[in-house]
Amino acid sequence: MHQSNKVMLEKLFFKMLPVQILIVAMGAVNTIVDGAIAGRFVDPVAVGVVGLFFPVVNLLNAISAVMLGGTAVLCGRFMGSGDMEKTNGIFSLTITFTTILGAVLTGLSFLFPTIITGILGASPDLSPLLASYIRGYAIGIVPMLLAQQVSSFLQLERQTTRGYIGVATMIVSNIALDIALVAVFKMGIWGLALATSICNWIYLFILISYYFTGRSQLSYKLQNALWDKLIEQLKIGSPGAMLVLCLAFRGIVLNRIVLSYGGEDGLSAMSAYNMSSGIFIAYCLGNGAVIRMLCSVFIGEEDKDSIKHLMKIVLTKGLALSVAIGVIIFLLSPVLAGIFFPDTTSNVYSLTKSLFMIFSICIPLILVCQINTNYLQAAGHNLFINILSVFDGFISMVAASLILAPIMGIMGIWIANPVGIILTILTVPVYLLLYWKRFPRNIDECLFMKPDFGVSDNDRLDIEIKAMDEVTNTAASVQEFCENHGVPHKPAFYSALCIEEMAGNVVLHGFTKDKASHTVNIRVVYRSDSVLLRIKDDCIPFNPKERADLISGDDPFKNIGIRMITKLADDVTYQNMLGLNVLTIVINHSTKKVG
After folding, report:
1. Does the pTM exceed 0.90?
2. pLDDT-based confidence at 240, cuts 50/70/90?
3. Residue 537's beta-bridge partner residues?
4. What is the DSSP letter of 537?
């Protein structure tokens, strides 16, 4: 893998990562604000009420994760193989199905809030407060679910700035509305939930408005929704949903265990932890989301070199950052506890501080879990991921809590957190042994890559171009590569001509549009019946297929080179994928057209 490819991949990874982190952290920030406002302007008991609702939030996230996981993997594979028609079909399917599902859940929340409070284990005193919170929260379920899907698609559309604006606006508006509705207008816990719902609608509007500008690569059409892919999408996405669903049930069970060994102070401490921990694990979840998205694309391209380099990035620089985050959490534990419980002499403050201190060592462990889970999901190991999700989301920590709590009391439940994560990490080496029925022999096998995955080194040619004077030599190398593989002279010449024209066009026009340093990455793949040419660059978006259709009356020779290539090639596809221009050209070995 060329150094420029590595640099481009690293830039892409760290460009996508902040948006994914903010998307996850946004909900956590809003929850922290809700908890702080509830504890100071409603009643300290209200913090526990919001904590009791947390399993429902996890359940909604599980439902969203089904679509989000399946969408990311299928869109990645279709984009990796150059099929934008199916990518648009998945986009339309996701938006339609998520809207219908959100409307159903909103109706159920409005009609049966008392039943939900009973399932969550609310006492008779807390049940009316929780029911009021549920109804207020229900107003924002549809935009909450839709925004999570749309934010993922905007990453594919290179709309990073819009994502930042949406996140910042939602956080600011949530703080302002919480203060206005709760502290000023005294609307209590209903106002707290209503503020969150209004913010969900604001956030969705900011994101989805891009698709009404006419500039989007993806377009929504109800008739284009690929309903025949729904089951496959749900199947692919089910592992991530299984984890969140298990976390929801785990929350219900742990709340009861905590009440038994720590009382109401223990429950409030756990609620404070649940409200704020999301902002710290957002880094880990953001890494996981980027891994899933990029690996899905690379698997569609059968690009194992990029997969391996991506793993190297996240297991070195990514892991180092997670350790730094853990240290910061440890040092800030007293401050974090004080946000919710200002009385530093209280038992609940002491319990909350110790929980945050123990949680700090979990951050690098959670990152490793996210790397494993999202990579294996992208690679299609659905059965194991479902098993892993149940173990990680429910069994490991609940079992550890049931064993340690009778011995150590409430501290045993706190310590069960890192113990459960370590046990989860150890399941992957066990699965490796079962998968290969022996110890893995190399890095490829550690990544579950079979020998037939990807193109062999002998059947591919990778070249990077940094200047115009390198284009002609690259074209000659492509023709030599093709002829050495037995490709007849004409298709070998056409392949070289395509590279010379298209790569030269990128260098001549794309490199000069800004002051940034650019590189064109060329990949030539020999197939038994064709030659595949893939040209990838990080310049401004440019679709040569559209230019091929533009024939100027004043200048009939305008774009003639691009038009010639589209006539010579058997297939030409373009996509702006994750901020990169990707042009794929296929030249058949025989029966070539003459341009």
Report:
1. no
2. low
3. 520, 581
4. E
